[in-house]
Amino acid sequence: MESLETWLADANGYDGTPKRFGAGVQPTITVGEPVGDALAFDPPVIHVRPMTNVRWDWTGHGDEHNVVAVDGTFDSGTPNAQSGTSYHYIFEEPGVYQFISEPDQDAGMKGAVIVEEVPSTGYPAVDDWVARAPNFTGDVVDRTDTDTATVTVGAPDTNNPFVFTPPVLKIASGTTVEWQWAGSGPHTVTFEDHDIGTDGVVSTSGVQFTQTFAESGTYRYRCDPHETLGMRGAIIVE
Predict the structure, then answer these.
(1) What is the per-residue burial (b if ≥16 Cβ within 10 Å, else e) of 129-152?
(2) What pLDDT is recorded for position 189?
(3) What mean pLDDT is predicted for residues 132-144?
(4) pLDDT interval class at 100 (50, 70, 90)
């Protein structure tokens, strides 16, 4: 089987970044989503953990479609064009599962499901929170030796601008964190369990929010407009 990168080179609608799904979220892929003059799976590539139930929903656009794994792992059956049709498969084992719509493979209607265990930072609450972040790899950026640390909001140096970089930051108590907008807004910094964050949506580049963390603990935050795209982050204060 060809490499995933080669496989996806002509996949309609793929921007180079898989969409991550964490625990408790139903991954759903639409079948026959219009993309320019073509049709696609949307999202074409997803990243899930083992034992995830993935569902495909037909839009009714275009001609008949189906969902078939290249390696034969799953098969939705005879192609059809009926809106409201759905198919699901539980991915038990880690791996990369390439799939197609048989009538549309040569037209670029293809995708992949990447199944991996969630990377571990050693902080379970953090892992569950940032599992959907496109740039989360399990690494914790340690800035416990500085008085000030920076998180870039909407980092322009990735294929996906809807990220906080780094997604997980460790600091010492008393450290001030600056959130610096990269100009790809609008974004917010909204904390999950604490009444701190930006006063609404911010689009201006530069440092637009700062917070000094006096107490040890785990601080989880998100971008309200783009949380569904996985734009989440966490601060670990020691």
Answers:
(1) bbbbbbbbebebebbeeeeebbbb
(2) 97
(3) 90
(4) very high
Q: Give percent of the chain with pLDDT exceeding 70.
A: 95
Of 134, 182, 126, the closest CA to residue 21 belongs to 134
Token digits for 111? 């995708």
Q: What is the 3-state secondary structure (H, E, C) of the chain?
A: CCCHHHHHHHCCCCCCCCEECCCCCCCEEEEEEEECCEEEEECCEEEECCCEEEEEEECCCCCCECCEECCCCCECCCCECCCCCEEEEEECCCEEEEEECHHHHHHCCEEEEEECCCCCCCCHHHHHHHCCCCCCCCCCEECCCCCEEEEEECCCCCCCCCCEECCEEEECCCEEEEEEECCCCCECCEECCCCCECCCCECCCEEEEEEEECCCEEEEEECHHHHHHCCEEEEEEC
Task: Say yes or no to pLDDT of 119 above 70.
Answer: yes
Summarised one tens digit per residue, pLDDT across range 199-236 is 999 999 999 999 999 999 999 999 999 998 889 999 99
Tell me the CA distances in angstroms from 121 to 77, 94, 142, 166, 170, one per residue in order: 41, 19, 12, 13, 11
Structure tokens at 116: 């991996």
Q: How far apart are CA 125 and CA 138, in angstroms?
A: 13
pLDDT digits (tens, 9 = 90+) for 68-80: 999 999 999 999 9
The first and second tokens of residue 41, run together, are 């799976």
Q: How far is CA 114 from the centre of its chain?
A: 12
Q: Are strands 45-48 and 19-20 parallel, antiparallel or unpaired?
A: parallel
